[in-house]
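To fix ideas, we give here one paired sequence and structure record:
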Amino acid sequence: MRAYQITARGADPALTNLPRPIPKPGEIALRIAACGLNFADLLMVKGAYQDTPEPPFTLGMEVAGVVEALGPDTRGPVPGTRVAVFAGQGGLADYGCFPAERAVPLPDSMSFTDAAAFQVAYGTSHVALDHKARLQPGETLLVLGAAGGVGLTAVEIGKQMGARVIACARGADKLAVAQNAGADHLIDAATQDIRDACKALGGVDVVYDPVGGDQFKAAFRACNPEARILTIGFASGEVPQIPANHLLVKNISVMGLYWGGYLKFRPEVVTRSLSTLFDWYTEGRIRPHVSHLMPLEQAAEALDLLRQRKSTGKVVITLT
């Protein structure tokens, strides 16, 4: 089978041929139809992600496909079931073996492309806004990186939860994508002062930040008393340093959110969240935005789209 692998530390990923894997106890064998790309894949290439496996390993964190077989003494979706899996690795291949407990049967109406674009982005934003920040109807939510993979879902979910959403992104094209997702107000990070624009709108109660750097600093200064700031990631490459005395004065809370971590210590949080999100999808309330659908042979180009910030929403690799 084909697999897009990192074979050694510091080596560039490359397309290679491997034997088809055989499921072990507790695993399913999956014929992979689609794999969603994430910013974390870029960090894995550099060896900078918190859960980077030891090489050799196959990139690709979230997949969708059809169950081919179950491992010995394994209970799980029967062969032929269409499922999505948050795998952490192994998705950019024709076949993979993954923990059976992570396989989520798909609604009949959900395509493999949508399924591969769904779990990480929507799961991250829903757990962040609902479980962590307790976003309330009528509050003002500022989403940084609002046209990106997770940012765009935060716009959608914020609207579903009744918030007034301010979307911040670079350029008119990306802002149009955020507006189509339901944003009430738009800020062009390339030309506008984020703090001044937010202050003119009455300040913000919750900040969703996958960017970090200067945008975090500007959003911090636009916070109302008792605001909650969600740190989702640092796409800018700069981890902000937080002045604790300012947190004290304004009664602001800063919260870290690593969605995959909940699978290890509180998996029920993820299970409940995904159940809600699949219901919303079935009801037509949310729909993944996939700007690029590309074959496995173009995995390098697809990752470069993320690296150069030339995509909106999700980039998905198709394997069928």
